[in-house]
Amino acid sequence: MIITGDDTEEMIELRKNLFNEFEMKDLGLLKYFLGIEVLRSKKGIFINQRKYVLDLLAEVGMVDCKPADTPMVQNHGLQMKENARLADRGRYQRLVGKLIYLSHTRPDIAYAVGVVSQFMHAPQEEHWDAALRIVRYLKGTADHGLLFEKHGNLEIHGFTDADWAGNPNDRKSTAGYFTFIGGNLVTWRSKKQKVVALSSAEAEFRGIKSGLTELLWLRRIMKELGLDSSKTCKLFCDNKAAISISENPENIEAKIVEMPFVKSEDQLADILTKAVNSKLFREVLCKLSIGNPVA
Predict the structure, then answer these.
(1) What is the pLDDT of residue 116?
(2) Cα separation of 255 and 242, whole Å?
(3) Quick one: pLDDT at residue 167?
(4) Over the Cα atoms of the chain, what is R_g?
């Protein structure tokens, strides 16, 4: 059981009442819970799943494997092919299920895991190889995680992007977003869209919709917690047409949301700047020549 809150006296009273009713032991500050490790320092709170990764490597017999530079090859083109050799479905589903749980602290594998999870019903050997590449990437990045620091503000920002007709089977697009509160990454998502977009602007528009919904939800949560969230939220996008058709006059006039245009390369660099201390894309973005993040 994890007990958290901002009222120390109430937490002490709660622990006291629990100990009176049940046989329990106070383990002190949170260090490990359901495969997630929590470390504290003067810089902030760092969470990762290093032990979970090492256990996963041992389970699939890849402790001594050669690490991969990225979780997935660029322009992978994964799809269902006719007459292709099938992989062991049970083994595939178990591995991908573990990778999905791992992505709770590893946004750098979110897209790759989202792709391989699309073939759970009938995985082929090519899909299995793609899943194993994610594992090989984890071998070299087992200590990656998220660092939450105090930056003196609680501003809410988000970044959204989408590929157009990226799925070779059904030509559906994949959209994703990252959101930050006070400079700390808090939520992220990468998901294939449900309908076929007829243009890149439409694909980006649907991506903006998901990112904007997330920002407004975070703003409401902050308000319910009694935290100052009065500053305008910013959702960055690299498609001017999508921004034009997405702007909500009510929210814009009330200065709730702004949607600045940002070039793709600048957007990626800005994400890196905000997330560098979280060890997010240390390997992936270096390969894309975006920058040279530090630990």
Answers:
(1) 93
(2) 19
(3) 75
(4) 21
**Cβ neighbours of residue 170 under 8 Å, at least 6 residues apart?**
196
DSSP letter string, 104-167: TS-GGGHHHHHHHGGGTTS-BHHHHHHHHHHHHHHHH-TT-EEEE---S---EEEEEEE-SS--
- Reference 106, options 158, 144, 50, 52; nearest CA is 144
pLDDT tens digits, 29-41: 888 888 899 998 8
Distances (CA, A) of 5 to 11, 183, 242: 7, 22, 40
Pairing of strands 45-48, 36-40: antiparallel
DSSP character at residue 87: P
Fold that domain 153-262 belongs to in CATH: Nucleotidyltransferase; domain 5 (3.30.420)
Give residue 74's identity as a one-letter amino acid code: Q
- The beta strands (E) that lie in the chain are given as 32-33, 36-40, 45-48, 145-148, 156-162, 174-181, 184-192, 233-236, 257-258
Residue 280 CA, chain-centre distance (Å), reads 9
Structure tokens at 111: 């897209």
* Contact by Cβ (8 Å): 153, 182: yes
Distance CA 216, CA 211 (A): 9
Return the number of other C-beta atoms located less than 10 Å from residue 216's C-beta: 17
Q: Of the segments 29-38, 129-138, 251-260, 271-280, which one has the largest average pLDDT value?
A: 129-138
Q: Dig out the tokens for 285 from the structure.
A: 């973005």
